[in-house]
Structures are given as structure tokens and as C-alpha cells.
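Chain A, query sequence.
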Amino acid sequence: MKAPDAAPTPALDWLFGLQRFGVKPGLGPMRALLAALGAPAERYSSVLVAGTNGKGSVAHTLAAALVAPDRTVGLYTSPHLQRVGERVVVDGRETDADRLEATVAALRPTAERLGNTFFEVMTAAALVSFADAAVDVAVLEVGLGGRLDATNVVTPVLSVITSVGLDHTAVLGDDLAQIAFEKAGIMRPGVPVVSGVTEPAAATVVAARAAGLGAPLLEYGAGFWGEVSGIGWDGSEFVWRHPGATQDGAWVRTPLVGLHQVANVAVALEAAVALGVEPGRAVASVAAAGWPGRLESFWCEGRRVVLDGAHNPAGARALARAIEELTGEVAVLVVGASADKDVPGIVAALAPRARRLVVTAASNSPRAVPASDLAAWLPGAVAAPGVGAALRAALDLSAPGDTVVVAGSLFLVGEARDLLSGAVPERRQRWQ
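Chain A, predicted structure.
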């Protein structure tokens, strides 16, 4: 993490300054950047993971299943919660700020000449880092959509699509079929696809695209699935049914919480097997593969404080189901969201599961909806000026033994995690 007396980071400061220029869909500038950098992604195999929700969980779990004594694994995810180095991980270890600073500094002149965006530069830095670390395989979480995302310049050996829901509709389209088409853009001719998509309209698009490319497709609910045997705040247990399994299937334990994570972990396991990992080894590997900020519990003043980056209605509904399954309702919901999200949809899913509401905004996110605006939409909600004040209000409105949930934005969750873990905040503006 970046301590107050840390060395200057001009390259990373420049990189984060690019966020304000937004996203520019299209692969041309990214291809030009990688070509100028010596095509680093051609030095290892890559897996692309797309999806509206669950792609971070699947990518993280898959990377954990792939790590082996004879195989070095890179993992690229976004956004980060607390430190930018979380985005670039090798064999489970995040990249330290000094190394990432040097990598970005080296590619900065080329990126400035080409006019690359924040996400393109961040992705290029990850791909270069993986080449420098001599990884054997890199698991790359798609940033936005798939077809025109910067990660889609690689040639994957496996494509994974976790789910399709309504999010980023201004860019990807306003119905599930359109969004599925964009996410299916990560597929390649003849390259296997593992899909967790169960929405009928979206699944039809994915299947048609796979058939057209001659890409073998394995679908959740048909070719494989998970049968839940237990869900708790400390994790989930299920039986993984899949091709080649014994009649009884494989019992799986994961620290990820909720029915939606059962499907995500099953998708990751299936992807690992498709890449040659022995099923039993894959199951053992995911037993410790948690994912920060996704139904993650902390204890504070005798209360369970749960952090979850439910930043769209589908994610909020999954969180609401988990609350219903685990405790029925929570004492307090702390919610904040970005202005470009379906805030009414998020709140409508979550509010009925809480006795009291506290609304706030991530202090480092210019995209955040002001707490006063959220309070105007939610009569009876307590407006708090910042995440620290929101947590204090939630603790005051609850009692020992109660559960408090913080959700609605990964930026909000990251700031709450800093406070609950005692970490030094990164203190950079967060747009992406």
C-alpha cells in the first residue's frame, strides 16, 4: 500500500489522471500499443473472463486453481478495492507499487504518443508484467463488454462468460441479447467456451455464436452445475456435477458466500479442468480462494459488517437473496452508488432486507451519487458525509450480534475495507 511517506509515483499519478477521459471502445489503439511494446501477450497463454456479474470471482478462483509448482499464473482484474497492485497478481501475490510504477513509466511515452486510455495503459502494464514474470498462463478479467474491450486483443486458449445482465446499457445495449452479443465477442474459432449464462435470451445468443465459430461450448445447468449443500457467512458447500465425475459428483468447499457464488465457483472449476487441471486438485485449490469485498465479513464492536460490491440490480438481487438465506434481514444497510448505475434498481432490491438505511458516497469517487440525493429518494434514510461517518451511524443504529451490510459500489466497499482493516488509503480519485 502507499504509505504517507512513500516515494513519489509520477507514472501512476499520470495513469490515474487518464481516468477523467473515460473509455473509448475499440481495439486499434490497444493493438498499436502492444505492438510497440513487443507483443508481450504472445509469450504466454491467456484466458478471457467476461460477464456482467461474477467475472472477478470466477477469474480469481480460476487463477487459484491453476497455480502449480510447474506453472506460474497471472491474474488481471478490475477495479481494485484498496491498492492498484491488486489488479496485477502473479501466483497470488499482488504487484507492489514500485514495480508497477516502473512498468507504467517505461510504457508511458508510447502510450502518450498513441493517446491510449487509462484502461488500455493499465491492461498493457499487466500484460508486460506477466511477460516479465514469465507466467505460463494469464487469466484476464474483461473490463467492459468483451468485443471491443482492451483485453480482447489477446488470443485466448479458453473463453469464459459468467453471466449476462443489464449494466452499462449506454455502451453495450439495453436488452440482454445485445449485451450477450458484446460479451460473446471474446470467443474465437475452435476455442472452447465455458458459460455460466442462464438467462434464456442471453444463453441463446452465446450458444449461437459458439456454434457459428465451431467453439466447443459447456453450459452451466446442462453440461455441469452445482448442487448446494450449505450456505453460511463463512462460505458455501456444494456438490459439483460435471462431465466425467463419479455418480456422486465432487464435494466442494469455498469461502465465497451465496448461491450465486456456487455457480461462479462451478464455472471456474470447469474452466480449470478444460485447461488440464485434475478435478481433485482444482477442488482442493479453491478451498482457500476468497475474494475481498464480495460478501466478506469483518467484526466491529460486536457487529458483523459485511462488504459486498453489488453495483447493479442483478448483483443487488444476489446480495438480497444471500441476506434472506442467511439471516432474513440485516439491522442496517449502508448504501452508496455511482451516478451511471441503476440506483433505484439497486436500492429496490436491497432496502426491503434492512431495518434501517444509511446512505453515503465514496469520498474518492467523483462518480458517486451525493448522499443528500440518495436520502431524498429514500425517506427515513440517514445521510452520512463519508464512509467513516456512515459506518459510525450504522454501528450506533445496531446492537452487538447484529449484521450490517455495506454495498452498492466497489469504491465504497474499498474505502470501508480500509477503515475496517486499518489500511492506509490510496487516496487517488477513482473513476474506473
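The mean pLDDT is 93. Residues 127 and 299 are 37 Å apart (CA to CA).
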